[in-house]
Design a protein that fits this description.
Keywords: Cell membrane, Membrane, Transmembrane, Transmembrane helix, Transport
Order of helices and strands: HHHHHHHHHHHHHHHHHHH
Protein name: MFS transporter
Radius of gyration: 21 Å
Number of strands: 0
Subcellular location: Cell membrane
Helix content: over 70%
Organism: Actinoplanes couchii
Oligomer: single chain
Shape: globular
CATH superfamily: MFS general substrate transporter like domains
Number of domains: 1
CATH topology: Growth Hormone, Chain: A
Largest sheet: none
Pfam families: MFS_1
CATH architecture: Up-down Bundle
Structural class: mainly alpha
């Protein structure tokens, strides 16, 4: 029988799970974001020096995409393990895998030292990063939401989403410190320091996560029935509509982050000649705004309903898209900051609610696999391709109009996914 505990014990367990999910996810997103930052600033020179600057940047962004290609594989592997054996063990494993891959990137010699082996090994390590984060996100969402008090799943899921801006803050601070070096030192060894710091952060994350028990919902379910032998088959055969809508609902949550943190960093520093230090400072402010705003957004969503709140936030993001691009085009730091803040306020309001919203779309026995596969398939299609496609548009057109259209399309597809998944969930509840 499942152990009965008191309300204070449940509240304490929920807090521990939320903190552990946040800390571990922040470390993993730090690792993922520093790769994106390095891809925009340095990898084209260090690992693809034989290409032209524009081609080297495209090759660098293509390497970034490799991590996104690997994420569905991580979702399937760790979703299977998490649905069969529990959430806690998978979260420890993914954290160690991510930290090891990131640290090795920091130690990897460049093209001028070991030749073509350098970009090949970079791609391999990026692939391992993708597998790790592909298994991490779904488990962290469930560790928080399944341990939450009744009716607080949306707010609990927000703790996982806080890992993204927290990781971005840490990554930006690390590169801000490294960018104080002159260009020669930065390209030689300075860019490596943020990757090596990962080893320390992983140890901190492990200390926190090893103290958390398995989620009560998973424990109770295992006592009632045997776990599914092949969760991925159950998801694909019994819940294909939920997978498609959940994928669409995740598009902006994944694409917008890399549009801002990776492509916009490259675009403003290369096309608009904004100093690297200035843009890193702007990205730091954006991450802080997102981190402070998301808890309030989740609280509002609990009151008005997650689907309605997300739809309004996304449509608000569409409205501010044109002003954002016009402000960025001025190349003035204050105007760029204002434009991107408008976008981050609306976009992160939706993002804060996304985790809890997706978790409610699948039954407990296949929930880890369901949300992981949906979210990580979206990451493959949208996340890594977003900066690549945006840079391709710039290379072909030389203007910002095509990029703006691409950005709005991302938002409108996401709206359709949110509305469709909400309608599907209502139908499922009525037919149950």
């Amino acid at each position: 029988m499942a152990t009965l505990d008191t309300a204070p014990e449940r509240a304490a367990r929920a807090r521990r799970a939320g903190i552990a999910s946040f800390v571990g996810t922040a470390v993993e997103w730090y690792d993922f974001y520093i790769f994106g930052t390095a891809a925009a600033l340095v990898f084209g020179t260090v690992f693809f020096p034989s290409a032209s600057p524009a081609a080297g940047l495209l090759a660098s962004f293509a390497t970034l995409w490799v991590g996104f290609v690997a994420r569905p594989l991580g979702g399937v592997i760790f979703g299977h393990l998490g649905d069969r054996f529990g959430r806690r063990g998978t979260l420890v494993t993914t954290l160690v895998l991510m930290g090891a891959a990131t640290t090795c990137i920091g130690l990897l010699p460049g093209y001028h030292t070991i030749g073509v082996a350098a970009p090949v090994l970079l791609v391999l390590l990026r692939f391992l990063q993708g597998v790790a984060v592909g298994g991490e996100w779904g488990g962290a969402v469930l560790m928080a939401s399944e341990s939450a008090e009744k009716g607080r799943g949306i707010f609990a899921g927000m703790f996982v989403q806080q890992g993204s801006p927290a990781g971005s803050i840490l990554a930006t601070l690390a590169f801000l410190a490294a960018s104080q070096l002159d260009d020669a030192a930065f390209l030689s060894w300075g860019w490596r320091v943020p990757f090596l710091i990962s080893a320390v952060l992983v140890v901190i994350g492990l200390v926190v996560r090893l103290k958390v028990e398995e989620t009560p919902e998973f424990t109770a379910r295992v006592e009632e029935r045997k776990p599914e032998r092949a969760p991925i088959m159950q998801v694909l055969t019994r819940h294909p509509v939920a997978v498609v809508f959940a994928l669409m609902a995740s598009v902006s949550g994944i694409g917008a982050a890399y549009f801002t943190n990776t492509f916009m960093l490259s675009y403003t520093t290369s096309e608009l000649a904004v100093p690297r230090q200035t843009m890193l400072n702007i990205l730091l402010v954006l991450a802080i705004v997102q981190f402070l705003w998301q808890p309030f957004a989740a609280l509002i969503a609990e009151r008005v309903g997650p689907a309605r709140f997300m739809t309004v936030a996304l449509l608000g993001n569409v409205v501010v898209a044109l002003p954002m691009f016009l402000l960025v085009q001025t190349a003035q730091p204050g105007a760029i900051l204002l434009g991107l803040v408008l976008s981050i306020i609306t976009g992160s309001a939706y993002y804060a609610v996304l985790a809890g919203f997706l978790a409610a779309a699948f039954p407990p026995e296949v929930r880890y696999t369901g949300i992981s596969v949906s979210y990580q398939l979206c990451s493959t299609l949208i996340g890594g391709t977003t900066p690549f496609i945006a840079q391709f548009i710039v290379n072909r057109t030389g203007g910002w109009g095509g990029i703006a259209v691409f950005y709005v399309i991302i938002l409108l597809v996401t709206v359709a996914g949110v509305v469709g998944l909400a309608a599907h969930n209502r139908r499922q509840v009525r037919s149950a």
